[in-house]
Amino acid sequence: MRAPSSAVAVVVLAVAGCGDAAPVTGDEATSAATSSSVGASASASVSAAAGSTADATNHAPAITPPGDQQIAEREDLNLDLEILDPDGDPLRVFVRGLPPGARWDEPRRRLEFTPDFIQGGQQWTVTVVADDGQARAEASFAIEALDTVQPPAPTITSEEPGDGFTRLRLRQKTDDFLDSPGYAGREFDAIVTAPTGASASDKRPVRVVLHGFVGAPWEEGWSGEYRVAPHDPMNSYWWGYAESLPDAAPAGAVREYTARRVLHLLEWVLREHPGADPERIYLDGASMGGAGALTIGLLHGRHFAWVSATIGQAIPRNHRPSRIAQLSSYWGDPGLDLGDGDGEAVWDRMDLTRALLEEAEARDQLLFLKHGKDDPLIHFGAVVQASPLTERSLYQALQEAAVGHLAVWDEGGHGDLDPVLGDTWWQAGWNPIFDDTSAARRDLAFPAFSRSTLDRDPGDGGGNGNQPWDPESGFAGDIATPGDSGWNGELAGALSRGLRWRSDAIVDELERFEVPLRALDGDGGPPPAPGYPTTGDRVDGELPALVDVTLRRAQAFRAAPGERLRWRFGDLEGEVTADDRGDVTIPDLPLDAAWTTLEVWRSDALAGG
Question: Using an 8 Å Cβ cutoff, are 49 and 10 in contact?
Answer without folding.
Answer: yes
